[in-house]
Amino acid sequence: MSLKLDNINSLCLLRLSAIGDVCHAVAMVQAIQRQYPQLKITWIIGKIEYQLLKHLHGVEFVIFDKSLGWRSYFKLRRDLAGQKFDVLLHMQVALRATIASLAISAKVRIGFDRARAKEGQWLVTNQSVEPLATPHVLEGFMGFAKAIGVTDLTPSWEIPVPLADSEFAQKMIPDGDKTLVICAAASKAERNWLPECYAAVAEHAISQGFRVILCGGPARLEVELAEAIEQACSQTLENQVGKTSLTQLLAVLKQASIVLAPDTGPAHMAVTQGTRVIGLYAHSNPGRTGPYTSLDNVVSVYDEVIVTQKQGYAPWGTRAKGAELMALIEVDKVVSMFDSVSQSQLN
Q1: DSSP class of residue 188?
Q2: Inside any domain, residue 262
Q3: Nearest-CA neighbor of 284 among 252, 254, 317?
Q4: Where do the DSSP E strands lie in the chain?
Q5: How does residue 1 score in pLDDT terms, banded at 50, 70 and 90?
Q6: Model pTM greater than 0.85?
Q7: Backbone phi, then psi, for 111, in 5-degree steps?
Q8: Which of 265, 262, 223 is nearest to 242 (CA)?
Q9: Which parts of the chain are coiled coil (predicted)?
Q10: Do both 24 and 141 map to the same domain?
Q11: Alpha-carbon distance 6 to 164, whole Å?
Q12: Tens digit of each residue's pLDDT (9 = 90 or more) over 140-161
């Protein structure tokens, strides 16, 4: 069922995390803004994710800082005191989001369909999006825009970047430079490819005239993985891990020719910038969480792994388990994909 916005002036969006998911949500928000440019939109978002999107046009942000523990819920209630929204788009299936939603006053509360409304979400909503059998996360999010009457669901992104950050990225990667950016680390170590494998692809890229830059956040896992890749590589790599803000990284990803990454936020950040992504997948279904505009460029062992683990059937979105699954991705297949993507850019 779709709502008409004749009498709707204010909308609250609840999507706290993670980086990749908020990138998907931006496409939905901007689809809404194209059709309803006067609609007041308030987005309740995580502290880290806000750093990426804080310059977004036409959106007021309220930060939910989960590091405050139980006090985060009381702070959210204070921040929203006196505000009443016509519609809430409850777009996060997590217990903390379910609890946080109790601080939001809204007449219409739209959540996922019952099959996807886990962690008690269905208890705090009064309407739901249309069920989808095999959606990509982005398509699932677009269901919320459709539920309020948006007809053009074509994803596009405009995430503003400060001029200084764009200049920083253009200085690092001048226009026209052939550059492979490797964002090697996911949030969990088991979703990372092996350092020697990344190094082998980097060596091949350099042999093809590409610069190779390692990028990522300051977490110890990311820093150590980048150092291990450098040690495994016979060529000199440019290591920028932990040296960029999120908006600087976004600008760097825009300047890149190709981005190589596992299932991690920067892969989806690169999608928002129109950059080709080679995604590496073993634990999650790339049809659901892959880089949306580069799904043909994914190198995945997910299908073969999940068939073995689930005896031939697994519900859409089922995660494969195992600490060594990423090692099943063959270097030769990634090199072949790199050659295919780089050649297509020249044609």
Answers
A1: S
A2: yes
A3: 317
A4: 10-14, 40-46, 59-64, 84-90, 105-111, 127-128, 179-182, 211-214, 238-239, 258-262, 276-281, 299-300
A5: low
A6: yes
A7: -125, -170
A8: 223
A9: none
A10: yes
A11: 41
A12: 999 999 999 999 999 999 999 9
